[in-house]
Write a structure and sequence with these properties.
Helix content: 40-55%
CATH superfamily: Alpha/Beta hydrolase fold, catalytic domain
Mean pLDDT: 95
Distance between the termini: 39 Å
CATH architecture: 3-Layer(aba) Sandwich
Largest sheet: 8 strands, mixed
Number of helices: 13
Strand content: 5-15%
Number of domains: 1
């Protein structure tokens, strides 16, 4: 791992730069199968968001908001000398990707089941489910190596986040549980980022979630933006995709058929295809 601007990241491949971001309690490792498919023609920068993986948490004096995460990833991009890279993220990483696109930091955006298109009760549900998964990861620590090495064990460990937990290799399954258990920023994300609508306002009603600040909507009109929602998402159920479509009607909206919330292992080829299509859409736009 490398460290810049207080963020840990891995770098692989060559080509147009693509910054990848994970969700609550995750790390860059969730992107491993997708990176393998893209690194031949993309330079991949997969980050550990603050308080996740090996990145230090945001200090207590600051709020762990989505905007704070976006500012820190933007600082990383600047310090690495990347000029408007493509960005993509899942869950809160998707929320951050949308903010980076709206700010003009990104050349294209792909957000996989992003947070922020929820009402207060849906936000509470997601936070409660995340907490239960973290407690489960903490209590099962001695059993993780055993569980990860059996199909039934992986289904028990990963069934909430993945539609096809059996396909996740044992080492990667154990990493998912370890990342959830050891996330130093988990509580801060629950207090702040996972209570926000897109743009930072507190989650309230479904109608409010469908209304996005004009600066964000206008900013995203300037870059190819794709929002892809997992059909079998238990963390952020599919009905939130309809809210996202009302909030950002100019974006491309895609259904990830048969996928769970963490679709990178459920169908890595489809995820890689969507990322490439977003890049090609930008090329076509610039050519015209």
């Amino acid at each position: 791992m490398d460290y810049t601007a207080g963020i840990a990241y891995t770098r692989a491949g060559a080509g147009e730069p693509l910054v990848l971001m994970h969700g609550t309690g995750g790390s860059h490792a969730i992107w491993r199968p997708v990176i393998e498919l893209l690194k031949a023609d993309r330079e991949i920068i997969a980050v550990d968001l603050p308080g996740s993986g090996t990145s230090p948490a945001i200090p207590n004096r600051l709020a762990a908001t989505n905007l704070e995460f976006a500012d820190r990833v933007s600082a990383l991009i600047d310090q690495l000398g990347l000029e408007r890279p493509h960005v993509a993220g899942t869950s809160i990483g998707g929320h951050v990707a949308l903010l980076l696109g709206a700010a003009g930091t990104a050349r294209s955006v792909v957000a996989f089941s992003p947070t922020g298109f929820w009402n207060r009760w849906q936000s509470l549900y997601t936070r409660s489910l995340s907490r239960s998964m973290r407690i489960g990861a903490q209590l099962s620590t001695p059993l993780v190596p055993v569980l990860a090495n059996t199909v039934v064990g992986r289904m028990m460990m990963l069934g909430t986040g993945f539609a096809r937990p059996a396909v996740v290799p044992p080492a990667d399954a154990a990493r998912v549980a370890t990342d959830m258990r050891t996330s130093t920023g988990f509580a801060g994300i629950g207090r702040h980022a996972n209570r926000e609508r897109l743009g930072g306002a507190p989650a309230s009603t479904t109608a409010a979630a469908a209304v996005v600040d004009e600066s964000i909507r206008d900013g995203l009109r300037e870059v190819p933006t794709t929002i892809a929602w997992a059909e079998k998402d238990l963390y952020l159920p599919l009905r939130q995709a309809a809210v996202a479509k009302r909030a950002l009607p100019d974006a491309k909206h895609v259904l990830l058929t048969g996928c769970g919330h963490l679709a990178t292992w459920d169908n890595p080829a489809l995820i890689a295809q969507l990322l490439r299509e977003s890049h090609l859409a930008l090329t076509a736009t610039e050519a015209s």
